[in-house]
């Protein structure tokens, strides 16, 4: 199967790894050459780590790497059977890219979005053939997280939904089919997790490291809410909160936080930028102060 991935950032590069590991011929596209180079270098590091842990051998590493080509022209995705978009969480930009993409791919190519919070119906509406559009929502880090939400829009055909579910299952993922509502399942449940943690911090009840420690040590979570926001990216996480808040007609349950807005405005995105709630070294490891 030929798979085109649009956007080689956190999610796009992870999804490319998943598809390539399952034997798909992947083309990973980005407008930013630096992002493409970074994705390639990161994959090399990840695969080397897997070799060190004895999970794969050198032959498997070469096979996975050879299954991915890095391209900077959207036209190069023209022979895709499935495309998954993972670019910036902005409806207008996504719509523009989808419309252009549709002019290159064949009629039966499935066009999917990895959006966390935008309506699949509105993304699909940019296409000549909206029935080919579906949400395929991976979690970060895509190679490790088992769950993938598949979201049919009102326009999505049954055949496209079935094929998408089958494909993602063949990539050894667990599929949850969710309705096209803001945040789908996981991101909706997660909003109060981040939101209440931020409110506790803003009200001076505890520091963010104390909140993280409490949620991990006593709450049983693998990461605290602030560690998780830094991991996801404060820019991405804030935008998702804003979108879900607006999509639920400004229901105060989903109200975004100024603390996170300011971090995002300052470029303190978290792990990927070296600074967020915490500081990180070049390998993305938390620096303890
Ligand atoms: P990111 O910021 O790490 O990567 C986005 C990439 O898209 C960048 O490399 C950028 O150069 C590229 N890009 C931007 N505009 C482009 C365009 N017009 N054409 C081609 N490439 C373009 O973002 P991330 O975190 O990978 O998020 C991507 C999507 O995945 C968003 O829709 C986000 O909501 C969703 N998502 C993010 C998760 C996360 O934990 N970060 C989890 C699940 C979904």
TrEMBL record:
Residues annotated as domain 3-hydroxyacyl-CoA dehydrogenase NAD binding: 2-181
An individual GO BP term: fatty acid beta-oxidation
Protein name (database record): 3-hydroxyacyl-CoA dehydrogenase NAD-binding domain-containing protein
All residue ranges annotated as the 3-hydroxyacyl-CoA dehydrogenase C-terminal domain in the record: 183-280
Key words, A-Z: Oxidoreductase
Keyword Oxidoreductase (UniProt): yes
Domain of life: Bacteria
Keyword Signal in annotation: no
GO molecular function: 3-hydroxybutyryl-CoA dehydrogenase activity; NAD+ binding
Parent-protein residues present: 1 to 289 of 391
């Amino acid at each position: 199967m030929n798979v085109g991935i649009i956007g080689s950032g956190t999610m796009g590069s992870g999804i490319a790894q998943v598809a390539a590991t399952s034997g798909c011929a992947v083309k990973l596209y980005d407008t930013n050459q630096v992002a493409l180079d970074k994705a390639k270098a990161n994959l090399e590091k990840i695969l080397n780590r897997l070799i060190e842990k004895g999970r794969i051998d050198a032959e498997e590493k070469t096979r996975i790497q050879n299954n991915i080509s890095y391209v900077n022209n959207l036209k190069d995705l023209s022979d895709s059977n499935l495309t998954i978009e993972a670019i910036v969480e902005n409806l207008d930009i996504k719509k523009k890219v989808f419309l252009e993409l549709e002019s290159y791919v064949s009629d039966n190519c499935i066009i999917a979005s990895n959006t966390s919070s935008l309506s699949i119906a509105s993304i699909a509406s940019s296409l000549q053939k909206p029935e080919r559009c579906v949400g395929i929502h991976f979690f970060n880090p895509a190679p490790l997280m088992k769950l993938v939400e598949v979201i049919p829009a009102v326009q999505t055909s049954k055949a496209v939904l079935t094929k998408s579910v089958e494909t993602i299952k063949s990539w050894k993922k667990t599929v949850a089919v969710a309705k096209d509502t803001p945040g789908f399942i996981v991101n909706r449940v997660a909003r109060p997790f981040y939101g209440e943690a931020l409110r506790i911090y803003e009200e001076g009840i505890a520091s963010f490291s104390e909140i993280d420690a409490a949620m991990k040590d006593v709450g049983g979570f693998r990461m605290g809410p602030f560690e998780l926001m830094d991991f996801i990216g404060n820019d991405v996480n804030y935008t998702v909160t804003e979108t879900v808040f607006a999509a639920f007609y400004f229901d105060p349950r989903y109200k975004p936080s100024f603390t996170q807005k300011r971090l995002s405005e300052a470029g303190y995105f978290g792990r990927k930028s070296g600074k967020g709630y915490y500081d990180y070294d070049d390998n993305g490891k938390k620096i303890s102060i």
